[in-house]
Specification:
single chain, 309 residues, Arc Repressor Mutant, subunit A, D-Maltodextrin-Binding Protein, domain 2, 3 domains, rod-shaped
Length: 309
């Protein structure tokens, strides 16, 4: 049995007016079409709903009983549809973004502030995690897009580079006096370097740069969190080697010195999206804000943050 809500509405409208011509006009359809729809409903139910004569139309006893049930069914359908639409509206205002922590810290606050101004009560979820975890969340539909620093090789994803940032050194205490404003990779071999762990993309970039020189990169210390690195650098226990964007949260600390690595690696930063499916309007707006924010960073920090290649 396949009975559509529209058929029930036709039945209830006719049960109210008991006039095929008026009901057809009210429903913006022809009288023959209405008659056929009622006959189809009667056949589906296996019951006559109306007694028709040349002069009048009357509900049958079964039709009267079923009209009450139909009103309840249509009412519940309308209420359920409204709940679904309300949920869809809430879902349309939700966005999930997967991002490396360093990018989330520098880029996403401005992006989310812009979304707050543009949309009423947007629901924003930020997954700040490793590059691999960002990609996995995107593939699992837990995020609308990802901010990553390595272009994924997955065939279902696409990567749009939005900027590149250079690797730099950050020092304090006695090491602050020993470092020059401009250093080279060969100068760093014997220094007590502090880096992210092997799982990070930052470590992959710097390790690859040394492997090209036939040298294995062996930092003195490795940490998962930039904040931890900052604490050790502040105590003079080592020199941080990180991408500039990852270093930005530490630049406000007193007594630190920033040095460039003239021949150091350059990290790519981009937006990763799924190839299949259209992004929501909120996701599109967020990606536009990411590009505007990264453009602002390039303008504010020229030489450190570079345009896409």
């Amino acid at each position: 049995m396949n009975i559509a809500p529209r058929q029930l509405r036709m039945f209830l409208a006719l049960a109210e007016s008991l006039n095929f011509s008026k009901t057809a006009e009210q429903l913006f359809m022809t009288q023959p079409s209405l008659s056929k729809a009622i006959r189809d409903l009667e056949e589906a139910l296996g019951l006559p709903l109306f007694e028709r004569t040349t002069r009048s139309v009357q509900l049958t006893a079964s039709g009267s009983r079923l009209a009450a049930i139909a009103r309840a069914v249509v009412g519940e359908y309308d209420a359920g549809l409204q709940r679904m639409l309300s949920s869809a509206e809430r879902e349309a205002r939700h966005i999930g973004i997967a991002s490396l922590p360093s990018l989330a810290h520098v880029i996403l606050p401005q992006v989310c502030a812009a979304l707050e101004r543009r949309y009423h009560l947007p629901q924003i979820t930020v997954h700040d995690c490793s590059n691999d975890a960002c990609i996995q969340r995107l593939l699992n539909y837990q995020a609308d897009f990802a901010l990553a620093s390595v272009a994924p090789s997955h065939p279902d994803l696409k990567y749009e580079e939005v900027l590149r940032d250079r690797f730099v050194l950050l020092s304090c205490g006695p090491w602050r006096q020993r470092l020059k404003p401009t250093m080279h990779l060969d100068d760093l071999v014997d220094l007590p370097l502090i880096s992210m762990t092997d799982a990070s993309t930052a470590m992959r970039y710097i390790s690859a740069a040394y492997l090209q020189r036939g040298v294995e990169f062996r930092p003195k210390m490795q940490f998962d969190q930039v904040g931890t690195i900052a604490g050790f650098v502040k105590k003079g226990l080592g020199i941080a080697v990180l991408p500039y964007l990852g270093m930005m949260p530490m630049l406000s600390l007193r007594g630190l010195r920033l040095s460039e690595i003239a021949d150091g690696p350059v990290r790519s930063v981009g937006i990763v999206t799924r190839r299949v499916g259209a992004p929501t309007s909120v996701a599109l707006a967020a990606m536009e804000e990411v590009k505007a924010t990264t453009q602002g960073l390039m303008n504010k920090h020229p030489g450190w943050i570079l345009p896409p290649s």
